[in-house]
Specification:
The protein is elongated, with a radius of gyration of 24 Å. The protein has 13 helices and 17 strands. The termini are far apart. The chain is 36% helix and 24% strand. It folds into two domains: 217 residues, Rossmann fold (3-Layer(aba) Sandwich); 210 residues, Alpha/Beta hydrolase fold, catalytic domain (Rossmann fold). α1 crosses α2. It has an eight-stranded mixed β-sheet with strand order 10-11-13-12-14-15-16-17, sandwiched between helices. A six-stranded parallel β-sheet has the order 1-9-8-7-2-3, with helices on both faces. It has a three-stranded antiparallel β-sheet with strand order 4-5-6, with helices on both faces. By secondary structure, it is α/β, with parallel strands linked by helices.
Length: 439
């Protein structure tokens, strides 16, 4: 096992792209040897993609998660990854006095996150074939090295012939730790005192899921232009006309129908953001107006849950008639009163609905219907939306299907705070990916 560290004299990296180019200079010997470059989401993906471009190599990602210490989630007592790989920091576990059972509970929870993230970021596709291949695992930096160690073990479990860990910057102790499990560790700069990976970048903005998916697409994943958008009109036998927007990514195996909240429409920017995230994850989406212009003038219709539910059911019939639904799995995403309608519709359609997500919803308005819901249901509420939290807890108790209440810290009812809606989108995407049932 070998490792090399190089002095970088021109100061911090400009950004992750700059770091990837610098790192590629020290890996140029692998060009022409058909290596697989594996990025660790999220920060390592941009660095890895640039390395793959410079080496003209295959690119993929490996999903791994830290196992955080009790009361200090940033302190890694281990890590987990795809293939149910679990890495323990035995020394730290001993110092903290953490029992095997306590560690296993945290590791199991992290493993479920890994499965969910893999379905979201790589829908319908497993890790690239690695048998007898040279694999270069890339992250944007090494602090403890636990996550990279998990990735090395994952690569070996998938049959890699040689595993190299490559990073722009890392702590010397982490490099030494990785050198014991990897065939080689390459690090551009290994300062005696790291002081945090972000300190070695001028631009260290968080990398979002959309960027990860875009990088995967740029190496042969589905082309963003393959998402077809159609302006449609939902019709029934009673001369009903409800405008909508249908977006279909190539190969979509599921479709999510949106039910907007009171005072909103198919043009809701919040729902459109979530819909675009779902499109990136391989889901088709339908956003449509639940009420006609005339109906919207009567404020009472906004809270007529039976009317709203019937409109959702009409949309599902229309999807069937237009051969849009077909064998795709069906999900509902509802906001505010629309969430109540989504759950009522799910109780009527039973097993036809695979999953429901509620954002700041009012499931309590249809609480008598909830025991009949068979769809896996995720209730998302802002941490500062206290009354709605209580209503959702009541609803959670009434649901019998697989269920979960997710509270976004610091968010109010409309999730207008920076980053709050992104969290909603990620939670929803992971939930639909996890519960993508048969059509």
């Amino acid at each position: 096992m070998t490792h090399e560290a190089y002095d970088r004299l021109r100061g911090p990296f400009k950004d992750r792209v700059d770091a990837g180019r610098a790192l590629a200079e020290h890996l140029i010997e692998y060009r022409g040897r058909s290596p697989v470059i594996i990025g660790l989401p999220r920060g390592g993906v941009v660095v890895a993609a640039e390395v793959a471009r410079e080496l003209d190599a295959e690119f993929d990602i490996a999903i791994v998660r830290k196992v955080g210490a009790p009361g200090n989630p940033e302190l890694a007592v281990g890590a987990v990854g795809e293939g149910d790989v679990v890495v323990r920091n035995a020394e730290l576990l001993s110092v903290l006095g953490m029992s095997d059972d306590a560690f296993r509970r945290r590791a199991d929870s992290a493993l479920q996150e890994v499965r969910d993230r893999a379905r979201l970021l790589r829908p319908g596709r497993a890790l690239a074939p690695l048998t007898d291949r040279v694999v270069i695992v890339v992250d944007d930096g090494l602090a403890t090295g636990a996550t990279a160690e998990a990735a090395v073990k994952i690569m070996r479990a998938h049959g890699a012939a040689e595993v190299i860990v490559a990073v722009p910057v890392g702590a010397p102790e982490a490099i030494a730790r990785l050198a014991e499990v990897a065939d080689r560790v390459v690090c551009v700069d290994a300062p005696p005192s790291l002081g945090g990976v972000g300190a070695w970048y001028q631009d260290f903005d968080p990398v979002m899921d959309d960027e990860v998916i875009r990088e995967l697409r740029s190496f042969g994943g589905p082309d963003p232009s393959s998402v077809q958008e159609h302006e449609v009109v939902i019709r029934d036998d009673h001369h009903l006309h409800l405008p909508g927007t249908l977006r279909e990514p190539a190969g979509a195996t599921g479709i999510v129908v949106f039910a907007h909240g009171s005072g909103s429409s198919r043009l809701s920017p919040r729902n459109r953001l979530v819909a675009e995230r779902l499109n990136a994850g391989g889901f088709a989406t339908l956003l449509f107006d639940l009420l006609t212009d005339d109906e919207e003038r009567d404020r009472a219709n906004v809270f007529d849950l039976e009317l709203l539910t019937n409109r959702l059911l009409t949309a599902v019939v229309w999807l069937d008639e237009q051969a849009v639904l077909g064998s795709r799995s069906l999900g509902f995403f509802g906001a505010s009163t629309g969430a109540g309608a989504a759950l009522w519709a799910a109780s009527e359609l039973r097993d036809r609905v695979a999953a429901v997500v509620s954002r700041g919803g009012r499931p309590d308005l249809v609480i008598d219907r909830l025991p009949d819901v068979t769809a896996a249901t995720l209730l998302i509420v802002g941490g500062l939306d206290e009354r709605v939290i209580e209503w959702n807890r009541q609803a959670l108790a009434a649901l019998r299907a697989p269920k979960e209440l997710a509270i976004v810290p610091g968010a109010t009812h409309l999730f207008e705070e920076p980053g709050a809606l992104d969290q909603v989108a990620e939670l929803a995407s992971a939930w639909f990916a996890q519960h993508r049932g048969p059509g």
